[in-house]
Amino acid sequence: MTELIASVASIDQAEALMHAGVDTIYAGEDYFGLRLPHSFQRAELTTLIERVHAQGKQIQVAVNAIFHNDRIVHVLDYLQFLAQQKVDRITIGDPGAIRILHQSQLDLDYWYDGADLVTNSRQINFWAQQGAKGAVIANEVPYRELVDLVPNVKIPLQMLVYGATAIHQSGRPLLSNYFNFVQAHQDKLDRAKGLFIAEPHKPDTHYSIYEDMNGTHVFANNDVDLMTQLPKLAALPVSHWFLDGVFADPDNFPKIAQAFAQARDWLASQSLTAAKIADLENLVQANQPANRQLDTGFFKIDPSEVK
Amino acid sequence: MIKNKPEVLAPAGTMEKLKVAIDYGADAVYIGGDAYGLRSRAGNFSFAEMAEGAAYAHAHQAKVYVAANIVAHEGDIQGAGDYFRQVRDHHIDAVIVSDPSLIEIAITQAPGLAVHLSTQASATNWETLKFWQDLGLERIVLAREVGLDEIKEIRKHTDIEIEAFIHGAMCIGYSGRCVLSNHMGLRDANRGGCAQNCRWKYDLYEMPVLGDKTELLGENADGKVEDFSMSAVDMAMIEHIPELIEAGVNSLKIEGRMKTVHYVSTVSNVYHKAVSDYCADPVNYQLDEALVDELWKVAQREMSTGFYFNTPTADDELFGKRRKRPQFKFIGQVLAYDAQAQVVTVQQRNNFGIGDQIEFYGPNFTHYHQTVTELFDEDDLAIERAPHAMQVVHFNCPYPVQTGDFIRAQAIEKPARVQR
C-alpha cells in the first residue's frame, strides 16, 4: 500500500492531515531540518509525536540540513532525543550525521535525503549499503528515468507529489544583502512575506524566495501536482508519496491531502477512473493558493531535452 | 621553513594550459576527461592526452587530477569502472568525484586510483570528512561556505587531506544544491549544463496570499533601479596565504577551467610565489603588494574572501554601478630572444602594435615593461601592427626575456563591476 507523508505546520493541522488519510507526519526543527512549514522545538515536537502515535500513525523527522561544525556537535543529542521519542524515521542529507547515527547505535531508521543530488539507483543503493532504509528522490528525475531506476533500487523511494520544489540553497543571506544595498525592506525576509523573483523579461514567472537560519532558499516557478500521474507512479512503484505544505494554505492543505489519500485508496481498490482523477484534480486546484500555479514539474520531461 | 608546504592547484582546460600552469608554478593541475565532468565546454582530455599531461607534470614534480564530478542520472554511469581504470592506467594522480555512485565505482573498480571528494558534495564539517575518509577517500575539497576557523576545527579532528578554493569565481549557493539552471532552461547544473542563472538580473516582488503583487526593487546610490541578483564577486585569498597554511590546508585551489592561458599563468605564478616565500621564511614573510597588483591584471570581477572570515554581505555581491579599472590583454608569447642584437621574436595572440605599452612576464615572476617602437614581420618588413592570430613578429627589446615568457598589454578600459 502506498504511504502518504505530509509536512505539518501545527499540531492541529497534524490532526486534520491524519484525519484526511495521511499515514506519516513530517516535521522538524529549522536547526536540523530544511525548509519546514513550522520549526517544532523539542517540547512541541514531543507533543506532536504523542498525538501522531496515539492515532496509530508514523512520524518522520527532518535531520536533513547541511551541518557546519557548530551544529554537527549537537546532532548526537538530537538523535538521542528522537530515538527516545520513538520517532519512526528521520531523513538525513549530510554524511556526517549518518556517521554519528552509526556510531551511536541508536534504534532510529534513516532515509537519505540529499535534495537534488539523489538521481540514480546506484547512488541510492550506496546509501542503502550505508544503512538507509529509503531515499528521497530528486524532483529533477523524470518519469522516463524512473522507469529504469526503480527496478534497480534496493530500498523504497519517497517522491514529492504535491508542493513546492526547492531549486537553490545559498549559505548567504541573499535578500538581506540586496535590501541592505538598496537600504529598504530589510524586514521582508521570511517565508510569510510571500516574496518571489521573476526571470528577466518574464514578468509572470514566480520563484518563491526566503531566508532562514539555513540560508536563502529559492523554489521552482510552479508547485508540483502529480495527481494526474499517480497511476503511473504507483505502477513503478514509487511507494512513498510526499505532500509538502510549505507554501500551502494551512487550512486547505489537509483538503489537498484528502484528495491524494482518496486517489491512493481508489488506486488500491482498482477503482480510480479518469473521471475520478479529474474530480480530485479539481479539488487540488480549488485548494491551491490563488497566487501559486501547479504543474507536473520534471515528471513528463523527455530526459533527452535536458542538456 | 615550513615542511608541510601546500600545493598550488591550478585549472587546466587544455594541454597548453596544463603545461603553462606547471611552468608558472602550479604543483598540481585539474583537468576534465571526455566523460563525467562538469565543464562540457572546456577542452577536455582524451586518455592519450591525459597520459601526455601526466608525463609532463610528473617530469616537473607536479600532479594531475581528473574531475569526474557530475551528479549522474540513471544510465549515465555505464562504463564508469572502465573509465576510471583507464584514467588510473594513464597515470593520473587522482579523480575528483561527488556522486557516491561514482565514488564507489572508482574505489572498488579502479583500485590504486586516489579519490578526492568534489566541492559539489558540500562537505562542511569534520564528521562528514571522517565519513568519506572511512570509505577510503584521500582528500576532501571543502564547500566554499567553510570559514577559516572551521577549517582549523576540522583539522583538529581529522588528518585527511583538505583542499580549499582560494581564487576565482564562486557559486552563490552551496555547490550541488542548485538546480536553477535545470528549472529555468532545462540545462542540468550538476551535469555540466549550468547557465549561471544566479548572475541574471531578476525582478523582486512581494505578494500576500490575498492581493496583488508589489515590486520591491530598490534604488542604488545614483537613484537608479537596482535589479535583484544573486551574483557573487570572485574570491582572492592572496592576502591570507599564511592563515590558510597554518590552518592546515593541504591544497590551495584556483577556479577556472574555462579561463585563459593569461589567467592560468598569472594566478599560478602569484600563488606559487606567495606560498614559496611564506614557507621559506614564515617569520619574516610579508605580502608583496606586487602580487596583488598582478592578480588584478587578470581579474574579471571585484574580489573578496568569500566565507573565510564572515558570512558574505552585500559587498561580496555584484550590486551597483560599474567602475572603470585597468584591463590587460594577453598579446603574445616569446619564441626566441637574441641577447646580442636585443631582438625578441614573438608569436602574436592578440592584436598589438607600435605605441602599445607592453609587459613581459615569466615563470619566475620576472616583469619587464616597454613601449613598442618598431615592429617587423617574418620577412623583416616594417609593420605598424600585428593583427593576425599566431603571426610571428620581432622587435627590439632591451631586457633578457626568456623563450616561453608571455606578453600582455593594457587594453582600452572596459567598465568593471564594483561594490559601493
Automatic annotation (TrEMBL), chain B:
All copies of domain Peptidase family U32 C-terminal, residue ranges: 328-408
UniProt cross-references to InterPro entries, sorted A to Z: Peptidase_U32, Peptidase_U32_C, RNA/ubiquinone_mod_enzymes
Entry similarity comment: Belongs to the peptidase U32 family.
Protein name, entry field: U32 family peptidase
GO biological process terms on file: proteolysis
A GO term, aspect molecular function: peptidase activity
The species this protein was found in: Agrilactobacillus composti DSM 18527 = JCM 14202
Keywords: Hydrolase, Protease
